[in-house]
Amino acid sequence: MSSLFSPFSLRGVTLRNRICVSPMCQYSAQDGIPTDWHLVHLGARAIGGAALVIAEATAVSPEGRITPGCTGLWSSAHAEKFGRIAHFIKAQGAVPGIQLAHAGRKASAHAPWRGQGNLPESDPNAWQPIGPSAIPFGAALTRVPSAMTKADIARVQSDFASAARRALEAGFEWLELHFAHGYLGQSFFSPIANHRDDQYGGSFEGRARFALETFAAVRAVWPERLVLSVRLGMTDFHPEGQPIEESIELVRRLKSIGLDIIDPSLGGNSPDVSGVPYGPAFMVPIADRVKREVGIAAAVSWQITEPQQAESIIRDGQTDLVLLARAMLDDPHWPFHAAKVLGRPDYRAVLPPQYHRVI
Ligand code: 536
Fold first, then answer.
1. 29 CB under 6 A from ligand 1?
2. Which residue ranges form the domains of the chain, and what is each CATH number?
3. Mean pLDDT of the region 112-127
């Protein structure tokens, strides 16, 4: 029987417990380069006792950013600044992770506190988004993306592989590909966003091709000893979205080409969704189902806030890891407090000696 504070190993990577920091967009980069904000934001959570700290959705190319303030990994200057962050996280005993992304048709948007939806086309910081088809997301994301050519597809896939190499160079040990939330990988898979009639659209095989090829290109450059994860939008809660059985089949195919762990999430391809069963730990039944049906390790996020809730998810084997974002913003020392609440006699050791001697 596992507990929230038992170690967990995949390939050559061992996590000190099951508590992980989920990627959180901070909209605080400059030209994609992370700033001291990121060092402190991520570093504080490594100090707090998390086992894995995953840096936010980081674009593989400038046009793959969600907003002008999103991080990127398209040059060695980006890798160098990320290197300091990865090094600090590791020095605290946590594993440094990063999520690679391409925002696709949801790109060129305002940082949430600056406005809603797309930057106006007249804004000098705006750019032309790309996607599987020339169909806008909708709601406040009205900008029509350019439908990607085969050359565009090949270039983005090679950008993913180059960014993975830079993540390795920076010292990250856990890589997650963002194929969820309506961003590029997910939008190729979704019949809502992908209306192509070439080999990258249509049937399951066609819609899954972009994700499978991109994953394979990354696995080819990402070392055997390190972990490769995918955040996949399992369902859109929309009648025109792909059936969840297709998503499970995609996870099965990804596993067969080297996927180590799945991080299930929402599709995010339409503003017109209804019936998302928001509530405490609502993604757990989906994660548990993928884990059992595919026979793969799983992590789970969304509304996990309480130590006892996290403990029972791990103890019951529903998932292997819990990913916390909002709870970690609320309390960077969440793992320390969880250890205390769960009555662990060694709870002090969750914090580094600079703090635990005196707290
Ligand atoms: C929540 N968000 C996810 C983001 C950034 C903006 C907010 C991300 O993954 N980078 C979200 C979840 C599901 C669908 C849409 C948005």
1. no
2. 8-356 (3.20.20.70)
3. 97
